[in-house]
Structure formats: C-alpha cells, structure tokens
Write the structure tokens for this entry.
Amino acid sequence: MDEHIERYKNIKKDSYEFINKKLSGFMKDVYPKETVFAAAKALGMTYGKKKFSVDSKEEILYIFDYAINEVEIAGKKIIQLYKEQVGLENEKEVEFSKAIENSYTSLFRIVNTSENKGLIFMKDLFGNGKNTRLTDIVMSQTTNSDMLIFTRIFSFEGMNISSGMHCAFPAKHENQLLREYMEFLKQQSLEDTQKQRFIFFYNAHKKAGIPSVY
C-alpha cells in the first residue's frame, strides 16, 4: 500500500476515535444546548425552543462541524474546554487538538485529482489563490475540475485532510458565488468571519449545490 494513503487512513482512524467519539461525546454530554443546539439554530434547523430537525444525515455533519469548530462558550471552543476539563492522553490527541484549533474553511477551485494517490489539487479562492493539496480518497474519486468545494482543512505534517464536511458547487458559479458572498458580508455587522462564511456557503449549497458523496 502507498505510504501516503496508509498514513491518511491511520489519521482518519485516529480522527474517528478522538473527534467523533471522545470530543463529540464530551460535547453532547456536557454542553449539548450550548454547542449542538446552538449550531442547529445558527444553520436555521431549529423549531420551538429546544428542538431541531434535519432533512438528511448529511446535515448532521454540518451541525457537528459547526458545533466543534465555530461555536464558542464564554469565548472558548469545545476543544479548549475538553483540554481543560478532560485533558489530552497522548501525542496523537495533542496533534489533533492543534489541527482542530488551527483549522479553517475556504472555497476551493478543483484543479486536478489523482485517484490512485487520493489527492485533490486546489486553488484557495480566499487565500490569494494559493495552491492547496488535499488528501481524501472519496473526494478524489467524486470531484473534478468542473467543481468548487467549500470545506474545512485540518493540517498535519506533510498532509492536509478535510474535516469530512464539504459543499460542492458547479465551477461555472464561481463568480456569482463570490459576488453574492461579498454582498452577504456587507449586510453583516462584523467583517468576514469563519462563522459567517460557514453559514453563507451552507445556505448557498442548499439552494444551488451539487449533492455530496460521503
């Protein structure tokens, strides 16, 4: 097996154990209203005071990605609260903690893909067009240069992976999306933030996105 692919699979396995089990479990058990419900509310999925509904399993990914990476409780995100109240057990968890804290979202233009190596070569449309190389086996098989991807990047030494959340759009909509996003920002009280960016592209995907494959 290719060493790059093997490392990717190990990172994804460790990610599931730490993020999907430990961190998400802590979040749901200790701060469900402040995180999960708050995320659903921000994304327009709530009704009443204590309930929210989703149209698909895919939307659960958006809720949890937003809850983990964007929601703040007294100025702290859930990874910071986890470190303070539970603690990190080993170097792998320290590595994932840093990746979560330094993660970012952006809209990317797909330039090329390599299915054999599980790679997607992209231009970061909010990062002055810098080149970004993403490792994602499924995405390398389901995306192409006719697409744009909004996703969250976790960076490790020598490798970028996505958080698992992504919104796909036809590449021909690039100028329109960027124009509408700038108009959206003009209506906000704050300048560009990761929260606002997430909400805009989530809603844009609901209106004119390409169904995602997970």
Summary: The chain has a mean pLDDT of 92. The chain has two domains: 3-101, 104-208.
